[in-house]
Design brief:
By secondary structure, the protein is mainly α. Helix content is 69%, strand content 7%. The chain has 14 helices and 8 strands. The longest helix has 36 residues. The chain is globular and about 65 Å long.
Length: 446
């Protein structure tokens, strides 16, 4: 058994499972902020009813996300001790900022919102929801900073066998931070919107809470469409950054084995590292050159720029990337059809559309996870791009057998957590929303 491979698999398991929850909480937080802003502005109790219901689903997801995030961070000291020693001077700063500046804000106001629901004024409810949304989005920023530094390290020097921070802001705003952050946050909005869209559609199919469900479906559909279309531009922005700062990763995404001008855009195919060809290739001539540099004669670097030992695993990079792109196209098409139905005042009663909306709930989470997989596997064999190899980053004293045992234990625990999460969500949805009758509250916050 290879300890490096097992350590990577364990980290993939813990991060992949954890990454089911932050996109949903970020997306739901902003959607709920809008619902409670409408409640503050109009006083219509249906928005209070909606805000309370979606807050419950947010709270369940947030709690599981917190638990799985703690497990993930412990691995830096357990399986990746060499990495932690090498980058501790840099990596610790954004993680500390995330805990102090973001997670604390999000968790405190989530508690205020949940436990103070019947004691707060409309304005205070909205403000608390806004702080939850801001905190969750800031939390994502600092996590993205830490991971982006691994992709495009900046603001450091190598001294005494360690990476030492020399410019905090250069490290924070390294070349990939903003493209990856914007891409990720927009993906979270898509995840939250499709989650709300699907559950609202289920209520309409069951003819329950019709007025409230129509309003939440309309909100979710509009956000899903705008965010899905925006992701097309943000994804391109990120891809251009990858082309200029991580050209080997882009070459793996596109199965581009040779550096060339008028590089084609690969729509479909299976790259073969042995023959250095792409089987069943369907290409757009000069498409990649045009997308990267807006010049169909632009020179795009291929995998031949580096030794095969420095190539990422091709299929494990290529397939997740193209699956993410395919799902992104589906999100645009599906939400676009929904907007057309909405314009024709048929979205709330079209059973085929509503049924597809229910079945589409998990797809943005699949897209987020395969996108993360493409980004991380595409960086291999480096854990810090061109600075530290993954094989040199593992703990020296943790044997493969212990890592395998922990993977099996984590898998069992995560299976229970996943079942618990889905069951709690299902039970909450089955119980439905609280009555929309006006509730008299003691307004302790003006």
């Amino acid at each position: 058994m290879d300890a490096v491979l097992l350590a990577r698999l364990q980290f993939a398991l813990t991060v992949g499972f954890h990454f089911l929850f932050p996109p949903l909480t970020i997306g739901l937080a902003w959607l709920n902020t809008w619902l409670l802003w409408r409640y503050r502005a109009t006083g219509e109790d249906v928005y209070r009813q909606l805000g309370r219901f979606w807050l419950k689903l947010f709270a369940i997801t947030f709690a599981i996300g917190v638990a799985t995030g703690i497990t993930m961070e412990f691995q830096f000291g357990m399986n990746w001790a060499s990495y932690s020693r090498f980058v501790g001077d840099i990596f610790g700063a954004p993680l500390a900022a995330e805990a102090i500046l973001a997670f604390f804000l999000e968790s405190v106001f989530a508690g205020v919102l949940f436990f103070g629901w019947n004691r707060l004024s409309r304005g205070a409810l909205w403000f608390a929801s806004l702080m939850v949304a801001v905190g969750s989005t800031l939390s994502a920023f600092w996590i993205i900073v830490a991971n982006s530094w691994m992709q495009t390290p900046a603001g450091f020097i190598l001294r005494h066998g360690r990476a030492e921070l020399t410019d905090f802001w250069a490290a924070v705003f390294n070349p990939s931070t903003l493209p990856r952050y914007l891409h990720t946050v927009d993906a979270a909005l898509i995840a939250g919107a499709f989650f709300m869209l699907g559950i609202s559609a289920w209520f309409l199919l069951k003819d329950r809470h019709v007025d409230a469900a129509r309003r939440s479906l309309t909100l979710a559909l509009v956000v899903a469409f705008l965010a899905s279309v925006a992701e097309l531009g943000l994804g391109h922005y990120h891809a251009v950054q990858v082309a200029h700062t991580q050209p080997v990763k882009l070459a793996a995404f596109e199965g581009l084995f040779t550096t060339q001008r008028q590089a084609p855009l690969l729509l479909f195919g299976l790259p073969d590292a042995q023959t250095k060809t792409v089987r069943y290739a369907v290409r757009i001539p000069a498409g990649l050159s045009l997308l990267v540099d807006f010049d169909n004669d632009a020179n795009i670097k291929g995998l031949d720029e580096v030794a095969p030992s420095d190539w990422p695993p091709l299929l494990a990079t290529f397939i997740p990337f193209h699956l993410m792109v395919l799902l992104g196209m589906y999100f645009i098409a599906f939400s676009g059809i929904g907007m057309l139905l909405l314009w024709k005042k048929r979205a709330h009663g079209n059973r085929l559309f509503l049924t597809l909306a229910v079945w589409s709930i998990p797809l943005p989470l699949v897209a987020a996870n395969v996108g993360w997989m493409a980004a991380e596997v595409g960086r291999q064999p480096w854990i810090v791009q061109n600075v530290l190899r993954t094989s040199d980053a593992v703990s020296l004293t943790v044997p493969a057998g212990q890592i395998l045992a922990s993977i099996l234990i984590f898998s069992a625990i995560y299976a229970v957590l996943l079942y618990t999460w889905v069951r709690l969500l299902s039970q909450t949805v089955m119980l439905g929303m609280e009555p929309a009758a006006p509730v008299v509250v003691e307004e302790v916050v003006a």
